[in-house]
Every structure is written in structure tokens, then in C-alpha cells.
Amino acid sequence: MDAMEQYEKDGYAIFRDVLDAELIREASAHVEWLQKKHPDIRPEKLDWFLVLNDPFWVRLVADERLLDIAERFIGPNIALFASHYFAKPPHDGLPVLWHQDGSYWPLDPCEVVTLWLAVDDSTPENGCLRVIPGTHTLAFQEHVKDTSVENVLSSGIAGVDERSTVDVILKAGDVSVHHPNLIHGSDANTSDKRRCGLTIRYIPTSTRITKPIGAPFLLRGQAVPGVNDYRERPVYVEGEHFPFRH
């Protein structure tokens, strides 16, 4: 079964060895730089608002290899909606309760694809992504506030049947792709190794962002007049931004 067939059937797919080791090392150093710059933010919550003035982050999500994957799912006119590092520290990384991404997003229509870039090796021991195949065919389920355990979203779907759960095991540089309706989550990191992944939410330029959140950058192709206003890409300033190649 190829990636597109798996996505249609199960709601997710895996692409191996997408990004080179040098760029992944830069991404890993970027996370460490962000944590030092924003010590008040949990490392699992390095979210979209940080993208707006971060030249490296925009360079990373605009990498042609990632856009080539996104284009297979949403076509050639591609914008960024949001991006988020989930960096679970050793022994202290928070879980993410079962949820469907699209239920949280102000998108009309909810035509969007998520690429999950492994910055570290991602395993069951350090809290890898877990999915329930086939649930992308479901409508959005009720998400309820849940703080019974500390978790990233403080909410989730109750009563999920976990019997068909699949662990999405990735090497650094691999990418998984998942549908906005797919039920997924991840366990806490109780291992000795960090587990960091970068989520990238790509939309076709025909999808409207209906509330002023997210990081709307036009990354490939053409905008649709009157649909979204896109930001200018941030320009690197030495001493202000994370230093990177090029």
C-alpha cells in the first residue's frame, strides 16, 4: 500500500527520510534556543504565535520537500495556517489526550493537512504519536475539558475505543501526515530521551481562516483574491533571531 492509499484508508501516512540530518540538527537547536528565549512556556507549547517573527521557522515549514508532500494532499496553492513544536522533555513530557485537530480550528472549509516532522526519534517509550486508523471518516466528536491529569490541550474526547491504536514510530527526519478528523494523541514521556515533533498545518489558499489566529504565510502557488491576507516573511536580524544556514 503506498502512502496515498494508506491515507485514504486509515487517515494517516508515513514518509521516510524527508529532511537531511543537518537541517534536523538545526531544528533541534532551534527548539533549545526557543526554550531559553521563552522559559515561561512549556516546551510542548511552542505554538503558532512564535512563528510570526521567526525566519528559521518559516524557512523550515517552507522547505520544498515538505511542500511537495503537502501538495499531494491539498494541491499546488499552499499556505501555512499554523505550526507548533511539541517538545516533550525526558521524564516530564506531557501527554496529549485523544482529539481531532480540525475541531479546534477556525477554517472554512476544513480542508487542511497536518505534517508531523520528527525532530527526534519518536517511539512508544518517549511518547510517540498514536492514532486510531479509520476514524478520519467520523464527524467531529465532542471534546470536553479534562484536567484530571496535566496535559497539553486540557481537553479531549472521552470514551475512545483504543483497541485498534497504532504507534507512529518515526526516525528524526521522517514525516507522518494525518487528516484533520483522525482521532490521535500521545502518552507522557517517561523515558530518558526528549521527544520533539513539529506539526505543520498546511491549507489550500481556497480555505478561509475565519478568526485572527495562526500564522498565515503563502508558501507556494497563488493566493485566492479576498480569501486570506498573508504576512510578509520575517527578515533575519543578527542577534535577534535564531542563526541558521543561508
From TrEMBL:
Give a single Pfam family match: PhyH
Keywords attached to this entry? Dioxygenase, Oxidoreductase
Q: Name one GO molecular function term.
A: 2-oxoglutarate-dependent dioxygenase activity
Q: Does the keyword Transcription regulation apply?
A: no
SUPFAM superfamilies in the record, alphabetically?
Clavaminate synthase-like (SSF51197)
Keyword Electron transport belongs to the record = no
Q: Which domain of life is it from?
A: Bacteria
Listed name of the protein: Ectoine hydroxylase-related dioxygenase (Phytanoyl-CoA dioxygenase family)
Organism expressing this protein natively? Armatimonas rosea
